[in-house]
Design goal:
The chain is α+β, with helices and mostly antiparallel strands. Helix content is 30%, strand content 29%. The strands form 3 sheets. Strands 13-12-11-10-9-16-14-15 form an 8-stranded antiparallel sheet. It starts with a strand and ends with a helix.
């Protein structure tokens, strides 16, 4: 058990942003949510051996395009999604896990846990961020006859965009409906979904990945104020490499279908593609990294991680890469069928480099 406080919020959020690999939400939101959670109530991060194996665990997170201009999600929306799942759908929730690591995703569930008196469990669906709901569903899409239960809330009521929804059905269909609804809500929805037993999450998720985010975040923040050492320390903590340092020469970004997609080119000639998360890293036609490898950009001025939605033309950045074998990955990262849409989104081969 790890008692959660403001210091651990910061290490978790910063480390989570790094493990987001270009996606996983916003550091500012993660810090605000995490700080609020530990002020609301005493919170602890539990390991699996501290709960019965048959405890019902619910995944919480956000769905949508991080760069959407009209996105509007608040702590209340994240709480509401769990309430909808619990109350309207009759799910007895025994603990919460996040869908992934990321700047805000790592602390997904902390506010809900504080508000609703539920434990946070260190067994996320995936130890890095990923673009699709199926990638974060711990292999449930392969279970014949599995019925997904999902609830979501979000959107700015002042703009007439607020909605809340519950859906049951096939996992692909339910996830697609939530994704499409996020567009109607302005770009992002808070979601609670897919109740499973703790034992299932431990076998098919990424147990220990939140602690890993804290470890990586601590490595970077230990040198706060010295950007070069911050970035090198983060790369070492990831057992990765500092691939390039340069200026962003070109950025293309479009938000469509509930995703951000595009590409980044550095003054060094390195090129990155992204579909929320960075998918490929290349130079002169040579593939240097492929999702689910971790590919991450850092601001050279501050030493802090920068997501694909935040990257700007003319920005000086470093690119860090770590092989997927160095990461804690869930079952969704081990199914080549789930990578087909990613290939289409960035128009690059992925499967042949990974499987």
């Amino acid at each position: 058990m790890i008692n959660l406080d403001r210091e651990r919020v910061k290490t978790a959020v910063v480390g989570g942003a790094i493990l987001g690999g270009g996606g996983g939400g916003w550091v500012d939101l993660g810090l605000a949510s995490g700080y609020l959670a530990v002020e609301m109530d005493r919170l602890a991060l539990l390991t699996a051996d501290e709960l019965p194996d048959d405890t019902v665990i619910v995944t919480v997170g956000a769905v949508g395009a991080p760069a959407a201009k009209d996105r509007y999600v608040t702590p209340r929306h994240f709480i509401r999604a769990v309430e909808l799942l619990r109350d309207r759908m009759g799910v007895a929730v025994g603990g919460l896990i996040t869908n992934e690591n990321g700047g805000s995703a790592t602390v997904n569930g902390w506010i809900q846990a504080a508000a609703l008196g539920l434990p946070v469990v260190d067994a996320p669906c995936n130890g890095r961020a990923h673009p699709t709901g199926l990638m974060g569903s711990m292999g449930l899409h392969r279970r014949t006859g599995y019925v997904s239960i999902q609830a979501a809330a979000g959107g700015d009521p002042q703009k007439g965009r607020y909605l809340e929804m519950t859906v049951t059905g096939g996992l692909s269909q339910a996830s697609a409906l939530v994704r499409q609804s996020s567009i109607q809500a302005g770009g992002v929805l808070a979601v609670a979904r897919n109740p499973v037993t703790l034992s299932y999450a431990m076998e098919n998720g990424a147990p220990g990945a939140i602690s890993e985010a804290m470890r990586v975040g601590s490595a970077l923040l230990k040198h706060e104020g010295d950007p070069a050492r911050m970035i090198r320390s983060a790369a070492a903590a990831l057992r990765g490499e500092l691939i390039a340092e340069g200026v962003i020469a070109d950025v293309s970004l479009q938000t469509e279908g509930g995703f951000d997609s595009g590409g980044v080119r550095l003054s060094t000639g390195h090129e990155l593609t992204f579909w929320n998360e960075y998918m490929t890293l290349e130079k002169d036609g040579e593939r240097l990294g492929t999702f689910p490898d971790l590919i991450m950009t850092f601001d050279l001025g501050s030493g802090m991680p920068v997501t694909s939605a935040e990257i700007e033309h003319g920005q000086p950045v470093a690119v860090v890469w770590s092989h997927r074998s160095n990461l804690i990955l869930g079952a969704g990262m081990k199914d080549p069928a789930l990578f087909v849409d990613a290939e289409r989104a960035v128009n690059r081969s992925i499967i042949q480099y990974v499987f």
